[in-house]
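Model: Ready when you are.
Researcher: Fold this.
Model:
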Amino acid sequence: MKTQIKRVGLLSSALLTGGILAVGGAAVADSIYNTGPGSSNNVTTTWTNNASLWNNNHLWVGNFNSQGASSGSANVSGNTTGGSAMTGSAYNNNNASTMASVMNSGGAGGGWGGGSSSGSINTTGPGSSNNITTTWTNNSSVHNNNSVGVSNSNGQSAYTGSANVSGNTTGGSASTGNAGNTNGAQTNVTLANSSSVGGGGGGGSSSGSINTTGPGSSNNITSTFTNNASVSNDNSVCVTNESEQEASTGSANVSGNTTGGSATTGSASNSNNSNTTVMVSNN
């Protein structure tokens, strides 16, 4: 006589954007009794929990700016009495602010366990083979793949025109305006990957009993518990800030006048500011 009871439980979950797998509370109870001589009796329970979590994030931000500013020329010439020549100012201002935040919630396999398995074999005949086997397997994996790219590109030019006072009996002053460029880039990148796997594993129980067996019988009780967990975090962050600036003032000329005023050029300035903050957290 051959008596066999086999229980197989398979629980799996694939989480694409993060979540929690709660498994447990299952109970299995089996018994074999009153079998004849030379019988083969088996109680087998197998539980398998599979959980996988994939976080695949790709972010790219590009800020591109190109500016040009120029003022016209000012000319006073060929007059008996000439006034002043003055050009205006030329300015460029650019500011780029980027904030990127990536938060991946893990917890694959959370809440495993809580199940129970029990088996009993009794009152079997002589020479019987009696086996109780329980196998628990928990498999979980977390994969975080983050790629973040930020590129700030800025090109600025500012020019003031020339100021000319010439060929006058009485000439005024020649003055050019100011030329300036200002650029600022602020970049904040935050990556937070929660990589907990298999949280709450265990809690299951297994019990087996074999009794009142006949002479020459073979009796075995085997319990196996296995928890497997893997975590993979692949984070890539690239931040590039490029600034190209040019500022110049035009010429100021007072010449060829019987009475000439002053010649003054404006100031030329460039200002650039870059601030980058990157935070990566794998918990």
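Researcher: Now this one.
Model:
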Amino acid sequence: MDFSKYGNVDFRRIQKAPDAALVFNDLAPITYVADADAYYVTDPKTICDLLRRPEIDLFDSQNGYKKLTEALDLDFDATVTYLNSVPLGLRGGPHQETKRSAIQKVSHNFDEAVKTFETHFRNLAETLLTSPGRTDIFNEIYIPALRAALSQVTGADRELVDHAPEVVLAFDPYVSLKRRLKSNELIKRLFQIPELDQSARDQNRARGLSTLGSDASRGGIGYAVAEVFTNNVGARLSAMPWDDLRVYPAIAFVDRVCVQSFQYGEFAFREGDRIRLWLSASRDDPEYQEILAFGFGKHSCPGRKLALRWLECIKETFRSIDMVAANVELVEKQNSYITVSPKQLWVEVKNG
């Protein structure tokens, strides 16, 4: 397929609704893209249908790093260890075991994680937003609250949470070799490498959970909050449409692989086919936006309920603040080809 007619739009980097709509509205629900040797799926309903198919499973990211190690004589053992510590990097029994561990950890620390986030977010918001001034809501309110809550769940320190976007580059199919090596060195420093015993394995799983939770929350909740502010400049915070606040899919796409040939409508998927599910296609579709943000079934997000409680706290806090958002400036940060999050969300408030 020829993407040249879309001008400067880099299809791999599509993240938010305006650019996504430009391309996705022109595509069939499923399109084979020879340059990527993958089927691109851009219809939210079709994405959900395919995610339910037993013939489709997680893409084996570890295998790619093992091939790099063999071909270039490079050491990616730390990255492979990291991928072994998170559900997204595993299939079958190991996936279920790691997922179960993540669910247990979230469940065990759920109440304290909710309380910690609420306390930090409300205290910071009430301190910084109840008198005239300019505040970076993302870095001065949201990230400190997220950092404290994730530490409550996983025991992660500030450095791990702050470096999460660089760690999860392990899943990015387009990142350069130089950045992969840099990410690998970071993982060596932040994780127990080599993983010598069960204690180290448990610690790595906890830290892996923290990186996924941090990266997803930065983009998913961060952009949701930013959208409300940027669309309501001049309004009182208490009067903004917080009921419309929904979590965005934090990543543009996820790759799956066909593990058993099957027919889907006119498409005959063969074993080994790569299927790229463009979650960002749901950005303008409230019916599917939250479903694809958290997933469902065996691949659902272990932190879904926790994130939704944090979202309710954010809504309640801003509803209680009667200042006017006089000016809003969103600065974006492109973490990789597939993930993006706010870098800064500056909001100037004044008395009404």
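Researcher: Key takeaway?
Model: Residues 1-10, 12-18 have pLDDT under 50 and may be disordered.
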